[in-house]
């Protein structure tokens, strides 16, 4: 299990869940995301959005 998948399991925030699904959905259909050594700007942006949402959810859970 990757670090992002572990974060997804611990995070109960609906936005983080939605952002994770968007990133995975994009990666599943994107040749650049599925090809090692290539980059995809959209995939990277979606992953960063998910990571930010997950961090925010963890901060809010800790308050």
Shape: elongated
Discrete helix count = 4
Instruction: Please trace the helix and strand order, writing H or E for each element.
Output: HHHH
Query: What's the gyration radius in Å?
Result: 12 Å
Round the mean pLDDT to the nearest integer and report it. Answer: 82
User: How many beta strands in the DSSP annotation?
Assistant: 0
Oligomer: single chain
Low-confidence stretches: none
Strand-pairing-aware structural class = mainly alpha
Distance between the ends: 27 Å
Portion of residues in helices? Answer: over 70%
DSSP strand content: under 5%
Question: For the report, how would you describe the main beta sheet?
Answer: none
Task: Explain briefly what this protein structure is.
With 63 residues, the protein is mainly α.
Description of the molecule:
The structure is a single chain. The protein is an all-alpha fold. 79% of the residues lie in helices and 0% in strands. It has 4 helices and no strands. It has helices spanning 3-10, 14-29, 31-34, 41-62. 16% of the residues are buried.
List the helices and strands and how they pair.
Blueprint: H1 3-10, H2 14-29, H3 31-34, H4 41-62
């Amino acid at each position: 299990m990757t670090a992002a998948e572990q974060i997804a399991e611990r995070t109960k925030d609906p936005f983080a869940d939605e952002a994770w699904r968007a990133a995975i959905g994009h990666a599943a259909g994107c040749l650049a995301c599925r090809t090692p050594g290539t980059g995809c700007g959209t995939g990277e942006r979606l992953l960063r959005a998910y990571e930010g949402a997950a961090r925010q959810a963890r901060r809010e859970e800790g308050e």
